[in-house]
Amino acid sequence: MYTEIIEIKDLSTNTKKEGIIRELCIDDIEEMIKLQNDVVNYLENKEMFITLSREEIEYIFDGNGYIFGLILEGKIFAYVGVVYPKEREDNLGLDLNLDQEDLEYVVHLETAVVHPKVRGNRMQFQLAKRVVEKVIELNQMKYILNTVSPLNIASIMTTLDLGLVIKDLKEKYNGKLRYVSALKIHTEKINFKTNMKVPIEDYKKQLELIKKGFVGISYYKCEEGIYLCYGVME
Ligand SMILES: CC(C)(COP(=O)(O)OP(=O)(O)OC[C@H]1O[C@@H](n2cnc3c(N)ncnc32)[C@H](O)[C@@H]1OP(=O)(O)O)[C@@H](O)C(=O)NCCC(=O)NCCS
């Protein structure tokens, strides 16, 4: 099982600690559920995050994905995972009109939970990067897909930094607005033309661009706010 030592900044005390990144297993489930509940309690806007049920976590550990976690002083402080949705009706490949035969090769970047105590370490990205590397190494899947709330800046940054592109902005999970993003694994680097910068809160403009065939490829932070860059594949 994957294990790695990593340095973690504690922003509240301005100190550094040694953490461990390792693959989690079914024995970790109680601690994971507790961490998820703690993180939800801290959230001001609960719309941003859909929690996983115990059954959904068990499904992942039952050979349908995997989860990497950060351990600090013997406790789990963060985790990010993937799930293989296979023929389930929530397969995001259906939202993106993938071919029927490709649906079994879809991986969802599913859950990301980071305790406020370790925020500021880009832990979601660090764990997601390792998870995605494993998907690529295993060489069994074709698409990495996810959904992210347009209000969840950290997750949008993680999604785009991992190389996924925003393919849609639509209502999911009982009317909650979500970006649907995708990375096609093992493809040559894609070049984009006609880059357009749109304020992250301008959903109308983004939807117009998506309808014209644009995809969201990167973000740009400046004093006025955050912008998403949309482009068309060459
Ligand atoms: C989303 C989450 C996983 C991110 O945690 P994290 O990786 O520790 O995030 P960080 O604190 O390191 O922030 C990552 C980046 O987002 C930026 N960011 C976060 N909120 C921001 C905002 N409102 N405006 C601008 N930038 C913002 C941070 O500045 C940082 O960027 P930087 O590295 O350039 O400074 C965490 O907030 C969390 O657990 N949230 C609740 C659960 C959730 O929403 N999960 C994701 C959906 S599945």
Description:
The chain has helices at residues 29-42, 54-61, 92-95, 123-138, 153-161, 203-211, and strands at 3-10, 15-23, 65-72, 75-83, 106-114, 143-148, 165-172, 176-184, 192-199, 215-222, 225-233. It is of the alpha+beta class. The protein has 2 domains: 3-187, Gcn5-related N-acetyltransferase (GNAT) (Aminopeptidase), CATH 3.40.630.30; 189-234, no CATH class. The strands form 2 sheets. Strands 1-2-3-4-5-6-8-7 form an 8-stranded mixed β-sheet. The model has no long low-confidence stretch (mean pLDDT 95). The structure holds coenzyme A. Coenzyme A is lined by residues 39, 43, 48-49, 111-114, 119-125, 152-155, 157, 226.
What topology emerges from the helices and strands here?
Layout: E1 3-10, E2 15-23, H1 29-42, H2 54-61, E3 65-72, E4 75-83, H3 92-95, E5 106-114, H4 123-138, E6 143-148, H5 153-161, E7 165-172, E8 176-184, E9 192-199, H6 203-211, E10 215-222, E11 225-233
Parallel strand pairs: 5-6
Antiparallel strand pairs: 1-2, 2-3, 3-4, 4-5, 6-8, 7-8, 9-11, 10-11
Keywords summarizing the entry:
single chain; alpha+beta; Aminopeptidase; three-stranded antiparallel sheet; 11 strands; 39% strand; binds coenzyme A
Cofactors and ligands present? coenzyme A
Give the helix level as a range of percent. Answer: 25-40%
Classify the secondary structure makeup into a structural class: alpha+beta
Uncertain ranges: none
The CATH topology of the largest domain comes to: Aminopeptidase
CATH architecture of the largest domain: 3-Layer(aba) Sandwich
Number of beta strands: 11
In one word, what is the shape?
globular
Total number of domains: 2
